[in-house]
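Board notes (copied after class):
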Amino acid sequence: MNELGIRDAATLDAAERLFTDIRITEGLPPECAEPTYPAFRAIHRHLFQDLYAWAGAERKYTTGRGPAPFAVPDQITPWMERQFKTFREANELRGLTPDAFTKKAAALINEINAAHPFVEGNGRVQRIWLAGVAERAGYEFSIRPEDREPWYVASRIGFEQADAAPMAALLLSRIQALDDTERDRHDARAAQFLALSREQGLTSDDASFKAAWVNIKKIETIAKSAMPHDPDGQQKVVAKAREQLADHIRAGASIIEITEEQAWRNTMGKGKIEPNDVSAHQD
């Protein structure tokens, strides 16, 4: 059952897309960028928290596609942990050519899809996760609305026939590498951002730099309030947020200012500070 009490499938589908689009626009919590299975689950929790009490939780029953079952519940965690171990051992797919990147990414997506850890939203989380992986590897990845059916077909072939080629071809058609000049420019901007003092950042003429430091200031305020007796923890939270913002700038993203509500949202009720909304939009 969903949190909104919607019983019509079409209405629920529309609500899912509305609320997940809003959550994507806000920006993902920093922990979602970690190369781990808990980070993957955190993406699902963030996207679907408005709709399902089980957002971010593994399914508790066996399901499948056609006659073939997905991973049984007690095998989901070990299966997914193996995939993320492979991902980390592959240096998170950094430093690869577009062809090599998409082949390795498609193989991982096929294995993650075979686990199918969530009741709903598996494909959406896979695409959001992959977009972040691509960004950190120096690529821009964008799946279009018309790609929904090709993605489903490629996933089905990968699952039923253990053939990752269709998914690799789809991914290759949807990634774009930054050229060396553009990459150097973004690297230089990220370095410039990291070199700024608080005063320089808050008075910068660069809209992204200023918005980033406004966000950092809000996060710092929250960290002090939530962790009043842990100055080291406060500094780690702020440093992590700053590094994440630099990664967005390095990937060619522009930073937007967040609201106080966004900065607090994933902090309240968890007993720890998580600066989840250092938002960025792709240029």
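Comment from the instructor: The longest strand covers residues 139-141. The beta strands are 64-65, 68-69, 139-141, 175-177, 253-255, 280-282.
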